[in-house]
Specification:
By secondary structure, the protein is mainly α. It contains 15 helices and no strands.
């Protein structure tokens, strides 16, 4: 009885104390907020200016760059889409990036899962070779890639570009997902196998959904890298009919010399940026969940 009374009095006397921020913590927080604000302004101001300029004429852009347009010219987007061929380049980019992203995510997830969950002769060597692929500069592979694609008949074709995109994105995908599959509890896979699930069913229906935050994160990074790729298409995709957006905008900017329609050019730039923003907004929650999950491990 006395023990219960003492416990009750101790519980009543217990007061939760919240840690007070020290002066150094406040300084770090203040500096961090200032730096983040400056970084946001560095990104948003050029983006806002580009969006504003996409509704102006070339004369208005040079006369008063930061003023509102006298007449909002939505025709700039129509001109960029049809006259400049941005519509065709956009369609090519969607095909190339879409197929490459799906292939690299499936192959990367399968490879990362096997390397993380199974031990077999050469598994570590394969993993380190994947890591070595991250350090290999793209420009050193341009000449070999050119002759390889030429010999197999895929030079200047969209399938050839997809194949190259997959090969360069695969090492990063495996490296990123390796830790996610490594951290998943083995008991879940064992329970699925006890219930009669095979290796394929265990992977696709049990383990892969558990790695959804990591899959979403690496999908965003791969999408950004593939969507904005320029060096590889310029070297191995010289057919104007198969141009992607990065090539199309460069060609549009240079085809008229000094008589470029800057309003349509800025409209084309917004068309390129818009899918990236939409992609990030759609997968923002998964990306945040991936970061929080990584910090808790």
């Amino acid at each position: 009885m006395s023990l219960d009374i003492s416990k009750k009095s101790a519980a009543e006397g217990h007061v939760e104390r919240k840690g007070e921020d020290t002066k150094s913590d406040k300084v770090v927080a203040g500096v961090s907020h200032v730096m983040l604000t400056l970084w946001a302004l560095m990104v948003l101001i050029p983006l806002g200016w580009t969006l504003l300029s996409s509704f102006k004429t070339t004369t208005e852009i040079f006369a008063s760059p930061f003023s509102l347009p006298a007449v909002w010219k939505f025709d700039n987007y129509i001109s960029a889409w049809n006259t400049a061929g941005i519509g065709t380049y956009f369609f090519n980019t969607v095909i190339v990036v879409g197929f490459a992203l799906v292939i690299v995510m499936v192959l990367g997830a399968m490879c990362a899962y096997v390397l993380a969950r199974y031990v077999f002769p050469g598994s570590r060597a394969i993993y380190y070779l994947m890591l070595a692929g991250l350090t290999f500069p793209i420009f050193l592979a341009i000449v070999p890639l050119f002759f390889i694609l030429k010999n197999i008949g895929l030079l200047n074709t969209l399938p050839g570009l997809i194949l190259v995109y997959v090969s360069f994105a695969l090492p990063f995908t495996v490296f990123f997902l390796f830790s996610f599959f490594k951290a998943l509890p083995k008991e879940i896979a064992e329970a699925a196998q006890i219930d009669g699930a095979g290796e394929w069913r265990t992977f696709f229906q049990v383990m892969l959904p558990m790695a959804k935050p990591g899959m979403a994160s690496v999908a965003i990074f791969n999408f950004l890298g593939l969507w904005n790729q320029y060096l590889i298409p310029v070297a191995i995709n010289t057919n104007p009919k198969n141009y992607v957006l990065s090539q199309g905008i460069a060609a549009f900017a240079g085809q008229q010399g000094y008589a470029v329609d800057f309003g349509s050019l800025f409209a084309a730039a917004i068309i390129v940026v818009l899918p990236v923003l939409v992609m990030y907004i759609l997968f923002q929650r998964q990306l945040q969940g991936s970061v929080s999950a990584g910090t808790m491990k």
